Each structure stands twice: as C-alpha cells, then as structure tokens.
C-alpha cells in the first residue's frame, strides 16, 4: 500500500493525540531515546520532540503488548510482539512503573480488533440491560381495575337522564285526562268524601241495641 508521505507527516503532527512522550526504544542492538506519538492505531516515533518528520511508524494491528525484563538498562520495559509471517519484536522502556502501565494500556486499546471487541461487549451489555428493564416493567405493571360503580344519592332530584321511580298508589290516584269532571280537589271535599261514611258507621253502632 502506497502512502503519501506529505499527508502522513501532516497527520503525525496534527492535534489532538491519544498519547505522547519519551520512551527508550530498541529494535536490534541498543536502546535509544525517542519521542513517541500515538494517534489511533498508528504509533509514530521521532528523533526528538518537535521534529516534523517521524523516523518511523508502527501499525498496531496483529500485535500484543507484553511485559519484559531487560538487564542492560534496568528500565521499566515492555515489548510489542507482532505475530505472523514476519514476526517482529520491539522493546520499549519507561521512566517509572506508572508511566509504563499507562503506555501499555494505551497501546493495547489502540488496535482496531480491540475496539471491535469492545463495541461487541458494550452492545451485549446494553441488550442485557434492555432485557432486564422490559422484564421489570412487565412485573410492576398494575392489574386492570374495574370501573367504579355509580352510586346515586336518593335525596338528589332526578335529572332528565335519571329514570323516575313510579309510585303505583300515586299513579292509581291520577284522574283520567279524558274525563270531563272537575279535577280540582280541596281539603274540605276530601274530608267530606272520606269522613261521612265513617261518621255514619259510628252512629249506627251507638244506636244498636244489644239483647242479653
């Protein structure tokens, strides 16, 4: 694959970067101090900080980051091991344990394969959370309630939509509307109609003679 060097240099010096700093670097013979810049899955290294043209580039695919011990420099060392037909190993040394761990973590997370695994894992976790939330919402769903019964107050006046209660006695007492008789009744007329028969019965009882 052909790479435009000018575009590559521009990309190497652009901001932002994922990580940068000095590391001891050895490919074949001895360690040399180099300035490293990590951008995505590309690891650039320069002769010194501020240089525009990198000395080299490592594509962080198909490799593993491993701890190693280097007795010559007594540095906090780790190695990049590239697997495949052209196996290569690059040694790097940091100034402290914390710096070494930081670089190892950054380089491990830089590859496309690692990012793909992380995306798959995050997607699986989201699906599990979504499944649990659906199950939880189903369990907590309240049971359907019957509508409340309508209770009427017997002291309220019936409305047009309320069925009137019919009193048989009252209905029986109604006068036929076709009748020509006068339907105006007074208390006196009612008293005479009902009271007269009662008075006659009382008088008959008083005038009766019982024979012993």
Written account of the structure:
By secondary structure, the chain is α+β, with helices and mostly antiparallel strands. The chain has a domain at 5-114: PH-domain like (Roll), CATH 2.30.29. It is built from five helices and seven strands. It has helices at 5-12, 97-108, 112-139, 168-173, 187-207; strands at 19-26, 32-39, 42-46, 56-59, 63-67, 76-82, 88-94. The chain has a seven-stranded antiparallel β-sheet, covered by helices on one side. The chain is rod-shaped and about 155 Å long. The chain starts with a helix and ends in a 5-residue tail after the last helix.
Radius of gyration over C-alpha positions, nearest whole angstrom: 53 Å
Task: Write down the oligomeric state.
Answer: single chain
List segments where confidence is low: pLDDT < 50 over at least 5 consecutive residues: 161-166, 171-177, 179-183
According to CATH, the homologous superfamily of the domain at 5-114 is: Pleckstrin-homology domain (PH domain)/Phosphotyrosine-binding domain (PTB)
Give the topology string: H per helix, E per strand.
HEEEEEEEHHHH
What's the pLDDT, averaged over the residues? 78
The strand order across the widest sheet is 4-3-2-1-7-6-5
What characteristic shape results from the CA principal axes?
rod-shaped
CATH architecture of the domain at 5-114: Roll
Helix content: 25-40%
Task: Please count the beta strands (DSSP E, at least 2 residues each).
Answer: 7
Number of helices: 5
Strand content: 15-25%
Biggest sheet details: 7 strands, antiparallel
Determine the N-to-C terminus distance. Answer: 150 Å
CATH class (first level) name of the domain at 5-114: Mainly Beta
Kindly name the structural category: alpha+beta
């Amino acid at each position: 694959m052909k790479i435009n060097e000018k575009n590559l240099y521009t990309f190497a010096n652009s901001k932002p970067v994922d990580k940068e700093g000095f590391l001891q670097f050895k490919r074949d013979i001895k360690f040399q101090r180099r300035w490293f810049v990590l951008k995505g899955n590309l690891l650039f290294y320069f002769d010194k900080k501020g240089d525009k043209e990198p000395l080299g580039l490592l594509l962080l695919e198909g490799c593993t980051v491993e701890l190693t011990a280097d007795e010559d420099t007594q540095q906090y060392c780790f190695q990049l091991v590239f697997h495949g037909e052209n196996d290569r190993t690059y040694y790097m040394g940091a100034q402290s344990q914390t710096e070494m761990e930081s670089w190892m973590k950054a380089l491990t997370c830089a590859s496309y394969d690692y990012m793909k695994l992380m995306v798959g894992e995050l997607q699986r976790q989201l699906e599990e959370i979504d499944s649990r939330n659906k199950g939880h919402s189903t369990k907590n769903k309240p049971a359907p309630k019957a509508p409340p019964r309508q209770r009427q107050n017997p002291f309220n006046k019936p409305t047009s939509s309320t069925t009137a209660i019919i009193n048989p006695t009252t209905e029986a007492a109604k006068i036929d509307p076709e009748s020509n008789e006068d339907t105006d009744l007074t208390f006196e007329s009612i008293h005479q109609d009902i009271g007269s028969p009662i008075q006659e019965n009382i008088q008959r009882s008083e005038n009766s003679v019982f024979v012993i």
